[in-house]
Amino acid sequence: MESCEAAGAQVGEIPDNDISQVANEEPRRLSREQIFVMISTASLNFSSMVCYSILGPFFPREAERKGVSSTIIGLIFGCFALFNFLTSLIMGKYLVQIGAKFMFVTGMFVSGCVTILFGFLDKAPDGPVFIGLCFLVRAMDAIGFSAAGTASFSILINTFPQNVATAMGILEIFTGLGLVMGPPIGGFLYQSFGYEVPFIALGSTTLLMVPLNMYILPNYDSVPKKDSFLKLIVLPKVLILCLAIFGLSAGLAFLDPTMSLFVLEKFKLPAGYVGLVFLGLALSYSVASPLLGFLSDKIPWLRKWLLIFGGLLTALCYFFLGPAPILHIESQLWLFILMLILIGFALAMIGMPLFPEMLSCAYENGFEEGLSLLGLVSGLFGALWALGSFVGPTLGGFLNEKVGFEWSAAIQGGFSLLSGLASAIFYIYEAIQRKRSHPGNLLGSKEERTLLLN
Fold first, then answer.
1. How many helices (H) and strands (E) does the chain have?
2. Which UniProt keywords apply (predicted)?
């Protein structure tokens, strides 16, 4: 972690995107600790995404049988993101006091238990009792997930200080696999064995990973710092990065309640083929993330361009996804799938540079290196992601009902357009300020050399 301290101490001597000046000194082989951390975080990403996504194929139908309206079903899905948003900030703030390993393992344990409990909700009485239990279990699942996720990000950054984006890009493969495999696994188990078995099977698998992580995950001790979320979020660059996180999350979550209905109505595809359409986005995101993460670590100045063009490309793809009626282009399946593939790639362009850029900004503005700062950054990332996951489907569902999918997709792309333009303006302003100060620094150094030579 010495390289991060150097980045914070030498703000005037290095580019602001460069977290590490000794990245080439990183040993090519992963240490035993790094391998164990990768296994732990990968198991969390995969299991949590599978447990999160298995509800889609069959829970709405089961809830309707219990007398739950479509609006309440949407709120049951949305309350996960809402509680995740509220608890991520708290978990990030008190990560050091609670302990990263304890928070990780406990969050995973809670998530596994409540996933199993969700499988027994069909035994609850219809109506308000069933609805109340659904909200309670989903809220508990969100708390467990936010605890494990916040600790996971902090541990990962602490273990890979010089290759943060590369490590995150590799782990996004498991996130994508979890999202892709969750619905078919849940649907198959539900069709074959009934409502309870999908939750019991996946929850039990998550619980089996708890003792494994207790054994292989190292302990991380740190001293609490006085840094706060307020001090971090008021930094202009961090605000822009927060907008990028929100736009990324909202864009992904917007598609959950709207895309399948549009595909079924517009292209008259059988229901079994709708899941294949989703693969275009998930696979392109999973494949592009490791590559873009590697480039982000090896070429730090590339991060600003990834954020700018990623935001603009995402907005453009959402505009053509419908496409927007103003274009007067007929909707075609090949164009729709192509836009989904490009959206997955563009979202990876935005997601991979976010963490290293935010850490770089924090170090340059006097934040002390350590697990305490990593907890703040991880908590802030998790909170903004959860907020986007709540706003995306909520606003998307409302707009889809009022103006149709074509316009709602174009409006949704506005978040990414705004983040891309804001990033461009900020980095242009930053470059101008650096050029203005640079000649003075050069002149001073020449004068000092002349005096020393004399």
1. 16, 0
2. Membrane, Transmembrane, Transmembrane helix, Transport
**C-alpha angle 375/380/385, rounded to 5°?**
125
Alpha-carbon span 67 to 128, nearest angstrom: 9
C-alpha distances out from residue 195 to 76, 148, 206, Å: 17, 26, 18
pLDDT digits (tens, 9 = 90+) for 114-165: 888 888 888 888 888 888 988 898 889 888 888 888 888 888 878 887 787 8
Kindly give, in sequence order, each residue whose CB lies less than 8 Å from that of residue 153, ignoring residues fewer than 6 positions away.
Answer: 355, 374, 377, 378, 381, 382
Instruction: Give this prediction's pTM.
Output: 0.74
* Alpha helices per DSSP H over 322-404: 333-364, 371-403
CA distance 442 to 446: 6
Residues 6+ apart with CB under 8 A from 243: 415, 418, 419, 422
Closest CA to 411 of 324, 329, 331: 324
Are the C-beta atoms of residues 349 and 309 closer than 8 Å to each other? Answer: yes
Q: What is the CA radius of gyration of the chain?
A: 23
Residues with Cβ within 8 Å of residue 346, at least 6 apart in sequence: 310, 311, 313, 314, 317, 416
CB-CB contact of 144 with 107 (8 Å): yes
pLDDT digits (tens, 9 = 90+) for 286-323: 888 888 888 888 888 888 899 999 999 999 999 998 88
Q: Which residues are CB-contacts of 1 (< 8 A; sequence separation ≥ 6)?
A: 158, 161, 369
Are residues 222 and 371 in contact, defined by beta-carbon separation less than 8 angstroms? yes
Alpha helices in 217-329 (DSSP H): 229-233, 236-267, 271-298, 302-321
Q: Which bin fits 328, alpha (ψ -120 to 50), beta or left (φ > 0)?
A: left
Rounded CA separation 62/58 (Å): 6
